[in-house]
Amino acid sequence: MKQIIKSKIGSILTLAFAVVCVAGTVFAQNGPADQNKTGVGGTFAITNANIYTVSGEMIKGGTVVISGGKITAVGARVSIPRGAVRVNGSGLNVYPGMIDAGTNMGLLEIGNGVAGTVDAGETGNINPNAKAILGINPHTSHINVTRVNGITTVQSMPSGSLVAGQSAIIDLNGATQSAMAVERQFALVVNFPQISTFAGFTPGVGPRFIDFKQAVKRRDNRLKDLKKVFEAAKRYGKVRQANAKDNSLPAPETDLKMGAMVPYVNGEKPIVFIAQRARDIHGVLKFAEEMKVKAIINGGMEAWKVADDLKKASVPVIYNRIHNNPSNEDDPYDLNFEGPAKLAKAGVLFSISTGNNGASVRELPYQAGLASAFGLSKEDALKSVTLYPARILGIDDRVGSIEVGKVANIVVADGDMLEAMTNIKHMWIGGRKIPLTSRHTEFFEAFKDRKLAQ
Amino acid sequence: MNKAIRSTVLFALVLSFAAIGVAQRTSGDVLIRNATVMTASSGTKTNTDVLISNGKIARIGKNLKAGNAKEIDATGKYVIPGIIDAHSHAMLDAVNEFTYAVTSMARIRDVLDPTDVTIYRALAGGVTAANLMHGSANPIGGQNTVVKFRYGRSADEMVFEKAPPGIKFAMGENVKRARNIPGVPRRYPASRMGTLEVMRDAFVRAKDYKKSWDNYRAGKTRVPPKKSEELDPIVEILEGKRLVHAHGYRSDEHLNLMRLADEFGFKISTLQHGLEAYKIAPEIKKYGAGVSIFVDFWGYKMEAYDTIPYNAYILWKNGVVVSINSDSGERIRRLNLDAAKTMKYGGVPEQEALKMITLNAAIQLGVDKYTGSIDVGKDADIGIWSGHPFSVYSHAEMTLVDGEVFFDRSKDIAMRKELEEERKRLEAMEPNLPPAKRGKKKKPEAKSEEKAKTPKREAGGVQ
Q1: Which residue of A212, A361, B34, B372 pairs with B359 in a disulfide if CB–CB is 3.0 to 4.6 A?
Q2: Min distance A332 CA to chain B CA atoms (Å)
Q3: Nearest residue on chain B to A445, judged by CA atoms?
Q4: What is the ipTM of this complex?
């Protein structure tokens, strides 16, 4: 067991030592270079811990029992099943695993200069049949690096084109794509046409811009294209359905792209629209209403300006602007830090997301914390990376809080999970106790005691 | 946003912030009352006052007398040294001289933009000083400038005059990539091998150049050698008068550079980035260089793939002077949280973690006599935080440079309405209206003036 224990006070050291001993009996195999260890299942009882259920009150000195991959008991007085592996939680906090609802996890390893590792997007404009689940590398180093910071579930989205493809929801554990999948095809991802004056780079000179009027026209044209595609997909769906009911009617020629769009354009499954500015979010709302589709906003920089309309239309926001400067020089310096607080106040369902492609998804807790330094309540900050993203992703019956019957995606920390100084001490994904190792801990072990050659 | 609006609004903004500066002017005499003071040099002191007089820290203690000083009640708040970013490109109108492989003649001081809003955003994250460097396109890049963030003042007034001069070196992927800049002739080097040869060649030439000047000065030759803007700064490196800040990622790069420096008898002051420095921490300690790193930013290119967030801890444990930098107009706003992460990853003690964004950066930049800790006699570069600066729930409330308040969150919030109205007013002004709405009272000269103005900010956009 090579868990890194750095104690600040003696008592914690003793406790940590005890914890290591317990954990050590569960899994004894921690060699370097074995990425993506999938942990050990069984029955576990985390005892005498502060349990942040998120859905209800915090339970002091409580117990959580994990068995068969699920949470089987939670409370202050809980009988521990015979044979359960006990994890002493005294002085520790228990949380549901965090969820980042807006990443490109697994779709690229190194974005700049290593093109062979990039599977983030497809060629052309309309790629509804591109499925993230088929591109996600289950053995990317990003997965272990992310989960040891307490993140257990993400939405991974294809990127790039107007209709980028279909996202997947995955748990950050599993040796195969299927083992990780929570929803293989969750949402259609659309880069909603935006009004932008940017017109590309001239080599050696710099960015080129077009006139605002032209930019509006360009957006309108792209929006028209998008509408055409949606309408074509709806027609395709109707013809297919008609044929299914009455096979004397002509069957449509199979079209993989149109076929992929049908459940989304029919409003059966959600569509993630990437949009930041208020005018673009307004555009999405109008478009979604007209097309009768189920929209989720990803980005949401100025969603707070459109909060009432978002609320009225029940459109949630995956907010990913914490680690981004405000777009205008004269905006208040904390404008993007305050976004989540404003959305919470307006009653819009939102989650905080890193919007990152993998390597920095582990920043998620600190981003939620930073939003809390600028007006978001601590309670909402915690929810914005647990229960709220679970709701947005439609998996709140399964994860996002500590409740009996839910999947055991659980994190045990030695302090407030959103604080940068806090250490994750134990974690379970799908009820399997996950070793807290990653590419980074392996390098650490290999080099921490290195001395000069004699 | 329309360029014209942006420049007009920006101009108004600068005036406004300058106005804050004036309104808040303390003549550098301030008494910060009853704070938790994290000194970064001698531990944390609770319920403590810090008396600033004439811009310098005059006394640290309990129940100090204010005299004429402006009092700031910091009950329940934390006082820490101003954060110093040892690697920044804020304020720069141009970052890289993408031409020669040796651009030691290029000076960052010539391209400082004192109106860059990054300065204000950095102040709002408790940052008071930064090392502004040339980019990493060239094995030997341009001369850096250390500044204090005295926002609202001129570029010259921001320069940290007492900071020793320095220069940027660079190795690795960015240097190699810079040979493929469209519109610029392909250049040597293409590899890490050639990068070191470019440096070696420059030092060979600089030594010859120095020798010819030495001979001339000693009266051995009668004709003065031709002056070289390129070689003069390199001679200063050889003479130990100019600090070398060497950008590199891979551990082998750092070792090879240190060997090259030994060969020519000069010193590398800081290894910048040093993503793999932890692999060679004992060698770096023995050599005596500082290392300035990202705390946990990784994986964005191949040479950033082997870094670990335990880098700071391993270097610290080996006795290396480590600083944590941003290299970013965004990350510079949250260096406090980056320092906090070093306590998590490995377990750097609190004060050592704080030093990594304050005193250690000051040491690396050669300004630790003047700033970087809360000590009597030092410049009053200070951040006042709502809570513990390492907590995600805290924010900077006030940032002082030389005892002057350059950021005050309560004033900032109070001014927002006024700025919003000013913005609306400016947007409604004739030259700022979109062309379709313009021309109710047509003034042809106003239009041509507008045309001449528009392309101005577009140049120099490549970084």
Answers
A1: B372
A2: 7
A3: B310
A4: 0.91
